[in-house]
Design goal:
heterodimer; A: mainly alpha; 13 helices; flat; B: mainly alpha
């Protein structure tokens, strides 16, 4: 177990190094810097700006500074706003985290219940209906569903605030919309996973003991059957991050995704690279947690690795 | 040696070839047939629709400020947008771009993924390990973020770059599927036979093994079509994908979403057509998988 954690951590550090390097050179190779505006700036001002952001240092020196900063989690100062990137993360990450957590919890719970119910009644009308519902959830893009939900649930029915809302009920609609696609995928994975385990010996043993079918499915088959769901949660979170860009735009949530897209458009280099490295670091840690969870749920994989 | 070509044509003459079996299974799956027909109808709608609409004097670009946003009517079945442009034809034309992006990007992804997966499996050992770790790493990474960064940083309006970038991030599943299939094929007798007749590794791999993995590859390609289409719409929604004067479903939905409180139809027209298309492709992908790859059926 310890070896697994260590190798994965080393791999994660390597990935972070690659991302920091690629993003650094990509941005330096880009035409048009953040201060390349139409407005003519006095030469002294221009020199001061370049001095401040070390734009005149040799490239390798900028690169070394960049890497050492990233390694100490110091993402620098925004070029467009009067704030440091670390402050922006501290202020806005909680909004995104809350949105993402609610979405993933909804997707995991709703999807698993849907999928396992379908598996328990396989090849029945219930099964087919549930799977069609899941596929519908996968097919409707969040940026179509989001505005429609605002129209129906906020403007027409008045159940939820339409946008820019604080508090739990302000996050219900965005989390539902964000989680919908993943709920559909989770449902399909859970159904396939549970059906797979149904033919295993230990499930037959459970049946032979005379346990009720309900217990066999929801307790015994479910435990191994949800492993594909857990492995999916890693990539799903990666996808949730990009999904949140759109959702935060639609629902006007002041989360990190909103500022990431903004930094892309305004070429705010430090924010762009800082958030990129932050996102990847987050995912590396998350994938590690998923790997450990994997071992806890299925003891057989602990020694095999 | 033309063993690959001749073998394939010979196989088609046998009555119960795997391909025929698959076709039969697909046709028996009523849902897939219906969904396939729907997708075909959407393609016709988008590519021939604007021509037909032209006969009725409708096009995507005529601006009629005097008209403004009007609700669906006989003259404009999907309504008009803020500038008085006909939403029916705009939806059709947007679909052309969306469908073209989906197919082009999928072909690019197919090319990268199949090559990657096949080489990994055939080389085996350390090469395989490293190549598949790369796939794993990318799989847990929000690759779309990189597309966003590249699109914005190079400030490109080129739709070809968009095709290439989306294709460049969509090959992971294809690589995995191909690898799995090649792994199970590479020790079969026909591979030995090909090698015995003096075929080099590249020829054995791409003329003898990969054609036999075609079923799995087709399934993976169909499965990636809807997600590629979503990726394009997603980027266009953020204003980083298809650029004006071109418009795709993503850009149309983006325009519509800002007016949802007043002119809902501007969003609903392209949104619903896009949803239907993606749903049809998803169902079709499922049906193809069941037909071509019976081992993975879960019942």
């Amino acid at each position: 177990m310890l070896r697994l954690v260590v190798t994965r951590l080393l791999g994660g550090v390597f990935v972070l190094f690659v991302v920091a390097t690629v993003s650094f050179f990509l941005l330096r190779a880009a035409p048009g810097g953040p201060f390349a505006s139409e407005r003519v700036v006095p030469e002294a001002v221009q020199r001061n700006i370049e001095e401040r952001y070390h734009l005149n240092d040799p490239l390798w020196q900028q690169y070394v500074t960049h890497l050492s900063r990233m390694a100490t989690l110091d993402f620098g100062h925004s070029m467009k706003r009067q704030r440091t990137v670390n402050e922006m993360i501290a202020d806005h990450a909680p909004h995104s985290l809350r949105l993402g957590l609610m979405a993933i919890v909804f997707a995991a719970l709703f999807g698993t219940v849907l999928g396992v119910t379908a598996a328990a009644k396989r090849n029945s009308a219930t099964d087919y209906t549930l799977m069609v519902v899941a596929l519908l959830g996968i097919s409707i893009p969040s940026f179509v569903l989001g505005p429609m939900f605002i129209r129906w649930f906020s403007l027409d029915l008045g159940w939820f605030p339409p946008a820019r809302a604080e508090g739990f009920e302000g996050y219900v609609l965005p989390a539902l919309v964000l989680g919908m696609i993943y709920a559909g995928t989770v449902a399909r994975l859970a159904r396939a996973g549970v059906l797979d385990t149904m033919s295993q010996d230990y499930v037959r043993t459970a049946r032979a003991k005379g346990l009720a079918e309900r217990v066999v499915v929801w307790k015994h088959a479910l435990r191994l059957g949800v492993i594909p769901v857990i492995t999916y949660l890693g990539p799903a979170t990666a996808a949730l991050i990009s999904g949140s860009f759109v959702i935060e735009k639609i629902f006007q949530i002041p989360g990190l995704g909103y500022y990431f897209v903004d930094s892309v458009v305004s070429r705010d280099y430090p924010v762009l690279t800082g958030l990129l490295v932050f996102y990847v670091a987050f995912l590396v840690v998350l994938n590690l947690v998923v790997d450990i969870l994997y071992g806890v749920i299925d003891p057989r994989t602990r020694d095999a690795r | 040696m033309s063993a690959g070509g001749k073998g394939a044509s010979l196989k088609m003459e046998i009555v119960r070839s795997p391909w025929r079996d698959a076709w039969r299974r697909l046709r028996k799956n009523r849902m897939s047939v219906v969904m396939g027909a729907i997708f075909f109808a959407v393609v016709l709608f988008c590519f021939l629709g604007p021509i037909v609409a032209g006969w009725f004097g409708l096009d995507a670009t005529t601006i009629r400020i005097d008209l403004g946003a009007t609700a669906p009517s006989l003259a404009h079945p999907f309504g008009t947008d803020l500038l008085g442009r006909d939403m029916l034809v705009r939806t059709m034309v947007g679909g052309r771009i969306a469908i073209m992006v989906a197919f082009t990007a999928t072909i690019i992804a197919l090319f990268i993924g199949v090559t990657w997966g096949a080489i990994a499996a055939y080389a085996g050992g350390r090469v395989d390990y490293v190549m598949m770790r790369v796939v794993d790493a990318l799989y847990g990474f929000p690759t779309i973020v990189f597309v966003i960064v590249v699109m914005a940083v190079f400030d490109t309006k080129s739709i070809v770059v968009l095709f290439a970038l989306i294709g460049g991030i969509s090959w992971l599943n294809m690589a995995r599927q191909t690898r799995g299939q090649v792994l199970s094929l590479r020790h079969r007798e026909f591979v030995e036979a090909a090698r015995a007749t003096g075929c080099g590794p590249a020829r054995v791999l791409f003329r003898h093994i990969v054609p036999n993995a075609l079923g799995v590859i087709i399934v993976a390609a169909t499965a990636s079509l809807p997600s590629v289409m979503l990726t394009e719409a997603f980027l266009s929604f953020l204003g980083l994908g298809v650029q004006a004067p071109l418009a795709s479903w993503g850009t149309l939905v983006s325009e519509g979403s800002s007016q949802i409180s007043v002119y809902a139809w501007v969003l609903i027209a392209p949104g619903v057509v896009m949803g239907i298309t993606i749903m049809a492709l998803n169902f079709l992908g499922d049906g193809l998988r069941d037909a071509l790859d019976p081992q993975t059926r879960k019942d």
